Amino acid sequence: MLTLTSPVETWAHRLPAGGKLAVVAVGTTALFLVGSPWLLGGALAGTALLYLTGGVAFSGSALRQLWPLWPFVLIVGLWHIWTAEVAQGAAILLRMVSAVALANFVTMTTRLSDMLGVFERIAKPLSPILPPRRLALAFALVIRFIPVMLDRMGLIRQSWTARSPRAPRWRIMVPATLAALDDADRVAEALRARGGAG
Amino acid sequence: MERTLTHVALFAALIAVLGLVPKLDLAAGVPITAQSLGIMLCGTVLGAKRGALAVLLFLALVAAGLPLLSGGRGGIGVFAGPSVGFLVGFPVAAFVAGWVMERTTLSPAVAATAASVIGGIGVLYVFGITGMAMMLDKTLSEAAFLSFAFLPGDAVKAVIAGLVTQSLARMRPASLLSRA
Hints:
heterodimer, A: mainly alpha, 2 domains, 73% helix, B: mainly alpha, Arp2/3 complex 21 kDa subunit ARPC3, 7 helices
């Protein structure tokens, strides 16, 4: 499965994931403490420069990841033009876009395995109730079963359309959920036969 | 132990798949994403604790950088965006839906629909609207106005969650862990 990590190697790919997350947490908090649209505009420009150090292709895919924000930009923008509080509206939008862009930068420059490693370290204090091995196994099971379930969803749809002229609509959910429950039972049995989940 | 782990993991995968299926076309001609249906089903089928754990596991993988949210979104950026309240509300919604399901003796269809409305709509919207109000610096009523566009779709999903849960209860009574 594709992850959101950028295939374009940048200098930031080599930094440790935990450090990057800490910096972004501090940066995002700072963004929410600042109210001036000029400062927030500067923050957005700084974030854009950060992306540009990774090259044009890297920045282009970053822009595509920001695209889902457009409804919010449109609605909040129109709202503040209507209420004539343009400076405040600009501050809100600049803060929103910089915060998301900054966080995306970490996702784009960190491999999935490194990020999951950070989560497993954060969860270490929980190890009496949630052993790290079990958490790692849970991550692996989800990643493995997403393509399996997607395939089966397609099979269920095909066998439905082979028998009925109507579209399956929500009814596809029943066999899909049932199959997930059966898989869960079988995988549990297989795990137990191989020495348990740790 | 292993059964809890695999149920949690497989339902986390189910939520992801429901967001990836491009257009499930759940109700006649209305393309609605099925992801929040997955959240409701986690609660009504797995029960409060396991349901919430499945949603947390799903969110951890989203945060780690898998594009599993509907529309192919993911990464920690979504937790810095205006819909963060809905993401925070997801596990709580599943927990409340599961809790309602466990505490009633109504028929599975009625109980699951009610549980989905209370957890998957009521609780989820409280979190989502609060989050949007904070992120976009709006009042709660202004943020609520923006969120209510999704209400008809979510109402349809609550009914579907009820129907699916009822079918499961009929076909495989033991599989309904929320009623076990």
